[in-house]
């Protein structure tokens, strides 16, 4: 259960740099696991092997030809993850972004929401991150509960017949996936590369 001295409110402008650092730190905590998961799939290994074979005719060093494609692939994947989840999204019709704040004034989590891609798809979590110093203390659950209440209110204001919330989760973020399943969310699908998932989506009717 979330502690009673934890509150959620809209982010202030002066808190933006701190929130950005929190988002970037959250991406860094998972990007290596996501890259390892993606680059050890059979199609990725075949592509890396083909690239290395081609580079052997250009580069004098066998080791460099072997490592360069892996290095470039890891860098490209990390940059993509940081661009997608390591920045603040533009404001949406649901409001926000919001921050979780302890009684002492410490910002310990951030949440952003957006409407689903189509009418009737409910709301989506576009950012959900907790400071590493405040994890496993109920902050994520309280932010999720707040997101659900906002999704219900927004669905009512839009005249939707049901409220729904979808949360995307990086495939390597097992702790977040476990929290969502414990809160009644069900896996609905995934998206990724070459037929292998990099992000799973969890949904719940509210």
TrEMBL record:
Superkingdom of source: Eukaryota
InterPro entries from the UniProt entry: Acyl_CoA_acyltransferase, GNAT_dom, NAT_camello-type
Organism this protein belongs to: Camelus ferus (Wild bactrian camel)
Family: Belongs to the camello family.
GO MF entries: N-acetyltransferase activity
Keyword list, A-Z: Acyltransferase, Membrane, Transferase, Transmembrane, Transmembrane helix
TM spans (from-to): 55-77
Record's protein name: Probable N-acetyltransferase 14
GO annotations of cellular component type: membrane
Domain N-acetyltransferase: from-to ranges: 6-206
Compartment annotation: Membrane
Job description of the protein: Probable acetyltransferase.
């Amino acid at each position: 259960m979330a502690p009673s001295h934890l509150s959620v409110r809209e982010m202030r402008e002066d808190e933006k740099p701190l929130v950005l650092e929190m988002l970037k730190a959250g991406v860094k905590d998972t990007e290596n696991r996501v890259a390892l998961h993606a680059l050890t799939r059979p199609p990725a290994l075949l592509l890396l092997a083909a690239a290395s074979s081609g580079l052997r005719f250009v580069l004098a060093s066998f080791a460099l030809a072997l490592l360069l494609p892996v290095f470039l692939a890891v860098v490209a994947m990390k940059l993509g993850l940081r661009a997608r989840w390591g920045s603040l999204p533009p404001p949406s019709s649901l409001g926000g972004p919001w921050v979780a704040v302890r009684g002492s004034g410490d910002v310990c989590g951030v949440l952003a929401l957006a409407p689903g891609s189509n009418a009737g798809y409910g709301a989506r979590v576009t950012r959900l991150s907790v400071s590493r110093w405040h994890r496993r203390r109920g902050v994520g659950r309280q932010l999720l509960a707040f997101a659900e209440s906002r999704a219900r209110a927004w669905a009512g204001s839009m005249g939707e017949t049901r409220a729904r919330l979808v949360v995307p989760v990086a495939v390597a973020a097992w702790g977040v996936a476990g929290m969502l399943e414990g809160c009644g969310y069900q896996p609905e699908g995934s998206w990724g590369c070459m037929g292998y998932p990099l992000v799973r989506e969890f949904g719940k009717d509210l």
